[in-house]
Automatic annotation (TrEMBL):
<feature type="domain" description="Acylphosphatase-like">
    <location>
        <begin position="7"/>
        <end position="88"/>
    </location>
</feature>
<dbReference type="Pfam" id="PF00708">
    <property type="entry name" value="Acylphosphatase"/>
</dbReference>
<dbReference type="InterPro" id="IPR001792">
    <property type="entry name" value="Acylphosphatase-like_dom"/>
</dbReference>
<dbReference type="InterPro" id="IPR036046">
    <property type="entry name" value="Acylphosphatase-like_dom_sf"/>
</dbReference>
<dbReference type="InterPro" id="IPR020456">
    <property type="entry name" value="Acylphosphatase"/>
</dbReference>
<protein>
    <submittedName>
        <fullName>Acylphosphatase</fullName>
    </submittedName>
</protein>
<dbReference type="InterPro" id="IPR017968">
    <property type="entry name" value="Acylphosphatase_CS"/>
</dbReference>
Amino acid sequence: MKRFSAIAAGRVQRVGFREHVYKETFEKDITGYVKNLDTGKVEIVAEGSEEDLRALANAINIIRYPIAVKSFTIKWQEATGEYTSFEIIRGDIQEEIFERIDYAGTIMHQTLENSELSLKKQDQMLDKQDQMLDKQDRMLDKQDQMLQVGIETKEEIAALRKDTGKYLDDEFKEIKKELTSIKNALARAGIQV
Ligand SMILES: CC(=O)OP(=O)(O)O
């Protein structure tokens, strides 16, 4: 089993950093503590398997708003076995309360920023939807126009067929009449066809 004692510096106090460190030890066989120092830095002492400790060090040496670990010095030793659990060491109660109020303010600010961002995204999506609906409307208009052209073409063809049919009928009647008179003339001349 190993032990590390680390000092994190940067924006690491009043930003929920100790809670973050504590959360990263959750369900792991890690003991030790995390503590805010008067210098504004944070001390982390942890004991456990080397694999768990390396994962912990990676998970807490981060820059993720509002936490910003700017420097992280780590010293490795053999474990002592002196701790039974992992704890957040808290300071003066009044100081802790002020820290929590500051942190709550930061989180509220972040939540507001996030919701403004998501409202902006929603607006953009609604704009896009409007544009799509507009395009759909234009396509439906074009479809309607095409259907109208189809109907008109069909009507034209039907009228043309009717006209052509009547013309051919008249022509055939005329031809038949001509043939009958030719046939009669031939019969009168003694020619039977
Ligand atoms: C709110 C709070 O206690 O934060 P931190 O542990 O970062 O000081």
